[in-house]
């Protein structure tokens, strides 16, 4: 029997940690499987899906295909449907079923940081795909969310999910510092702090966070200015690696029905991050 084939598809795809992470999980489980990375330009997605449907057991889907891939699927689970995006596909008997494991990844990160008590006040920076998953989890917990985004109209569209519990606050709003000082959870779901925006933070200048707050940066593998500010103010500061690993673990469970070796997945990611940092320094 040939090994089962899995892949991550996106454009660009070179920097994805999924091949290393899932290869480590398959190896640790003793499964005969290969995990590839395919760069698929948007215009070629539909043509490639026919091939994946036949020859692959499962896929991860990343930018820019998470939304458009829904049109190619035979079935979409309720979480992916409500987010309007899928990041994991299971192929069985020529049928493609779409899931979104980002909320499970964020939920696991929150639990690990003991920040999953219901009813918290959260400030969420960003209104893109990752923010949508974060919002889904926070609202599911019964939290109240202050949403801050560069493009305010996009934030307003997200807030329409639950207008009673999501309040959109402009980035330069006078109320923002006070809300940040009272927030139990502050999440950065923007790329500010990534390598190409290394000195940027979503926090307004001089912002003070509550000492008991949990600050979560979905950017992973680096101490971003946001996390440094939070840590210096005595907050619990957590980067996005655990969300990445846990969403991958959930994909593995959907494909295999088994429990992955999460330590091996995390170690594989850390090694890739270290190698990438070394290659630019
Ligand atoms: P996305 O859909 O492109 O959304 C990007 C968000 O960031 C938007 O709200 C955008 O605001 C905002 N933004 C972009 N550039 C900005 C800038 N220069 N100043 C202020 N705001 C800016 O991307 P995404 O998929 O949500 O990803 C967001 C971040 O989360 C990335 O760093 C990504 O690596 C990270 N992420 C991590 C995980 C994980 O597992 N740890 C998972 C997914 C994503 P506008 O609406 O105004 O454009």
What would you say this structure looks like, in words?
By secondary structure, the protein is α/β, with parallel strands linked by helices. 39% of the residues lie in helices and 19% in strands. The protein is built from ten helices and twelve strands. It has helices spanning 18-29, 45-55, 78-83, 102-112, 129-140, 152-159, 176-182, 225-232, 241-256, 262-280; strands at residues 4-10, 33-39, 58-61, 75-76, 88-92, 95-99, 121-125, 144-148, 166-168, 185-188, 214-217, 236-238. The protein binds NADP nicotinamide-adenine-dinucleotide phosphate. NADP nicotinamide-adenine-dinucleotide phosphate binds at residues 102, 105, 126-131, 149-151, 154, 189-192, 194, 218-220, 240, 243-244, 247.
Structural class: alpha/beta
Distance between the termini: 44 Å
> Helical region count?
10
Mean pLDDT: 96
Our Rg estimate from Cα atoms comes to: 19 Å
- Compute the number of strand runs: 12
Which small-molecule species are bound to the chains here? NADP nicotinamide-adenine-dinucleotide phosphate
Residue stretches low in confidence (pLDDT < 50, at least 5 long) are none
Q: Report the principal-axis shape.
A: globular
Strand order of the largest sheet: 2-1-3-5-6-4
Strand content: 15-25%
Instruction: Describe the main β-sheet briefly.
Output: 6 strands, mixed
Share of helix among residues? 25-40%
Order of helices and strands: EHEHEEHEEHEHEHEHEEHEHH
